[in-house]
């Protein structure tokens, strides 16, 4: 068995639906943040479809204890990104945080583990405490975009005493749908002085 097959079989790994820079889904993902001139790029790695392989992977990562799978996938994506020669030059990789209650329930933050995997090939440190989720929110999957955006107001904060002026950040999450969660993070990063934000997610939904 190949080393990677401890986390995902080779057949599944090779069949992952990679998103290319000029794909329609990639363009749609970037368009969700057009109101923020601080957001320089948006880079989802895979295309998400209901009942598809990426959804199965995300369920494994989030609900079935797939912590090592999340880190492995981050490393795999980071290596691919590094070889392509087009990852952004940033100072920090920052995962979207879980609320402490959700973190206790799950035992790990899948976005932070993915970020840790990414950080190695990108030679960029991870700061898993820069952002804090102040409000416990229920699942947003069945809400409309406007409802999600409203639900994400005042949910996040930046660690006290941090000045992000001149700091470039790669903001990392698991999946991009409406973009409401990431918008909430972008807003507080900008308020803290950040003027260069890049976004990366495991997947994006069309």
TrEMBL record:
Transmembrane segments: none annotated. Residues 141-205 form the Phosphoribosyltransferase domain. InterPro entries: ComF/GntX_DNA_util-trans, PRTase-like, PRTase_dom. SUPFAM superfamilies: PRTase-like. Belongs to the ComF/GntX family. This is ComF family protein. The lineage of its organism: Bacteria, Pseudomonadati, Bacteroidota, Cytophagia, Cytophagales.
